[in-house]
Amino acid sequence: MARVGWKAIHRWLGLTAGALALVLGLTGAILAFDPVQQSWQAPAAPGDLSVATLVERVAGTVPGIEEIRHLPSGAIVVFSFSGDQAQAHYVDPADGRVLGAWQPSALPRWVKSLHRSLLLGDAGRWGAAGIALAMGLICISALVLLLRRMGGWRRLGARVRGSLAQRIHVVTGRVVLAVLCLTSLTALTMSASTLGLVTLDAGTEPDVVSVVTGQTALPGAQLSALQNLAVRDLRKLNFPDASDPEDIWSVATLQGEGWVDRYSGNMLAWQDATFAQRIYDWALVLHTGESAWPWAVVLGLVGASVLLFWLSGVVIWWQVRSQTLQITGNSPLAQADVLIFVASEGGSTWGFAQALQDALIHSGHRVHTGALEHFQTAPATRQVFVLAATYGEGQAPAHAKDALERIAKLTTSAVPVTVLGFGDRQYPAFCAFAEALEQTLRARGWPALLPLECIHQQSSQQFTRWGQALAQALGEPLVLDYVPRVPSTTALTLVARQGYREHSDEPTAILRFAWPAQGGGARLGHFAAGDLVGILAPGSAVPRYYSLASGSQDGFLEICVRLLPGGLCSTHLLGLQPGDSIAAFIRSNPGFALPRTRRPVLLIGAGTGVAPLAGFIRRNDRHTPMHLYFGGRDPAQDFYFGPEIQRWLGEGRLASVQTVFSRIPEGGGYVQDALRRDAERVRALLAQGALVRVCGSRAMAKGVAEALDAILAPLHLSVAQLKAKERYAEDVF
Ligand SMILES: Cc1cc2nc3c(=O)[nH]c(=O)nc-3n(C[C@H](O)[C@H](O)[C@H](O)COP(=O)(O)O)c2cc1C
């Protein structure tokens, strides 16, 4: 199974059989109306009522009764003959009163036929059974993939990340997967009987007749066999034919079938329900919800959810497909001097591999790129690169899950293998799979051209810097040109600009852009403080990302930009004057967003990193206790949002602020120093369940994590644990 892959099973069965399962799901949802409607139409009989009493009551109100049926909904239906006219009526079990005509279903027959046999008769029944089997496999593979994606049973309830389609697919899956599995299983059970693979009854009926003794036949109410039988167990009761003296009463119950003498009232014969019949009965109830309308409602909703599954599944498949580049310029593995192996779930790492391959080919190499599970070297191989993304709780992408084990078993060669990790620092196990690869390769004695480097959030800048180190190590003029796929952009106009340190070598500004008019706002979509705005400088295809200090609710888009010497985008942004515009798009940053909370919030930021934190405070209309630690260099130069912070304190949006400035005497040092000084207070906040958001440089985030680890130690907690509980998130640059 590992070779074929659960993912491939899920994907291909989902796309093909899933489309047909959609028909069964939707017709199933329609059929679920029946039990609901039936339960409205007639009252359920009290379970402890004896069948004899029921017979007595209905015999008084309905002439010519042939059969009494106790429906799964609990209602009683009486079949009778009036003249030569067959009739069926609901009756009230309390007094035998006729309530109205009975109809087996209010729905057109073809809906049931479509559900059971796709309108194709016997062949269709096999088809429907095949779809149920495929659905079962889809459900099992879904469970395996869900566990893999979430990182095990314990994390099954954790927040789902990924694109909107992925979130819909996974969240709906978590809710309805168990019911869908059950529905497929019960469908298969029922198909086994309809297709004749299993027989339900005991075979032949006993050949029994009433023994004519000259006595008059007993009325049903006096038959001891019926007096001892409760309606709760009854399925149906057939009356003897008045014109045939030898005819008998026959009764079907949940436990079996019996035949009763019409003169003595004795049970002439009894057959227990077979095991297969009992299983079938359970399957029927669970599959149709016939005897419990609330369950029918659940089944109906789950049936309809198949549509959501299938559509989101198709979108995910399409997204991955369009992201997974067909590698161009690939040489055969045996002839290539450079091999690139890729481990990717979402497909973006293949784009980086293509950029590396293009640069190496440009530099005169023959390059082969393939999936990591095919890792190997050939006599011609001179360099190997492994580009690996991390998923779940630090795991490999699905296709490469056995790759590590495989690599550990290979014979080591002298060819250098360099690992480049792709991950996201918001996950506790940042680039853990790439680290595991690096460790295994080094432990096995493979040399490396460069030490492990981990790319955060698919940063093309970081990739380019790694390319420069690679060029140096190879001694070749290599230029990595990774162009990410960029969504369509919207023009945003600058409306206000507040400059800081204008005459230093690192001028900074808070830039406020107007909410775009005429539909641009809709195209930009909803965003919140902490999300990212991608900005394309004129002439560049590579966006730069800035954390947003405002949300769409604020009606403007605000960022804080520091000049990066030689930086194309920051130079462009700092040169803007009110009225100028930029090309921008939004990239959500769900791991960093602040959920609505009543818990205290600890906001820690340094330099321009205060921007998203300012956005959180600005929106804090509910006065959640937010405590800000801000670190700058000099209050006269870089206390960004200083006046606003004072105002927010006054308005109660901010509960407290501690500032430190590293470049003035008695300034207090760095934020981590302030945290250490306030250890008692910070520990108390964390003990109360505070959420933590850290934004600033990588070095600052590291220093803060170390300080907090020491503060948390007496609580037997760590930053890693808070990250795993989604209480701690970093936005670093
Ligand atoms: C569901 C999910 C789980 C992830 N888990 C991790 C993780 O545990 N550690 C990590 O560093 N990155 C994690 N990431 C981030 C990805 O590794 C990162 O976005 C990578 O660049 C994706 O590359 P790909 O598109 O080639 O799969 C996760 C991403 C998603 C969508």
Automatic annotation (TrEMBL):
One of its GO terms (molecular function) is FMN binding. The lineage of its organism: Bacteria, Pseudomonadati, Pseudomonadota, Betaproteobacteria, Burkholderiales. Its EC number is 1.6.2.4. Keywords: Flavoprotein, FMN, Membrane, Transmembrane, Transmembrane helix. Residues 487-595 form the FAD-binding FR-type domain. The chain crosses the membrane at residues 12-33, 126-147, 168-190, 292-318. It comes from the Bacteria. It comes from Simplicispira suum. GO terms for cellular component: cytosol. This is NADPH--hemoprotein reductase. It is an enzyme of class 1 (oxidoreductase). PROSITE patterns: FAD_FR (PS51384), FLAVODOXIN_LIKE (PS50902). SUPFAM superfamilies: Ferredoxin reductase-like, C-terminal NADP-linked domain, Flavoproteins, Riboflavin synthase domain-like. InterPro entries: Cbr1-like_FAD-bd_dom, FAD-bd_FR_type, Flavodoxin/NO_synth, Flavoprot_Pyr_Nucl_cyt_Rdtase, Flavoprotein-like_sf, FNR_nucleotide-bd, OxRdtase_FAD/NAD-bd, PepSY-ass_TM. Residues 338-471 form the Flavodoxin-like domain.
